[in-house]
Amino acid sequence: MPSHVHLIFRAKNNNPGDVLRDFKVHTSKKLQKEISENIQESRKEWLLWMFKRAGDKTSNVTNGQFWQQHNKPIELWSNEVIDQKVDYIHNNPVEAGFVTEDYHWKYSSAIDFSGEKGLLEIDMV
Length: 125
Fold this sequence. Notes:
By secondary structure, this protein is mainly alpha-helical. It has helices spanning 16-37, 44-56, 79-95, 110-113. The longest helix is centred in the N-terminal third of the chain and has 22 residues, at 16-37. The model has no long low-confidence stretch (mean pLDDT 91).
């Protein structure tokens, strides 16, 4: 989705908070660097200013803040709950009107669930 990300992940060392923190730190630095170095990005100055402004409001952010501070974690404690959340995630771009079929969304694992190969390596749940 253009404005948010849904993730289902497993933390091998039972440390999901650490995994999520590291994901957010890495992707924030990488995306801000890509934006700042992209000469074709017409919104570059505005985006970097927004990241800096958000970061200035938060004591633990040294550069710009890309991600919001809060998360909405949900423990996936049964196969039924897992299936429900996977369906919700896959249908998100359909409900938003971006695509007519969930597997048409380029950044979705719905592609993998349909038998094709998506952009990322995933473990089927």
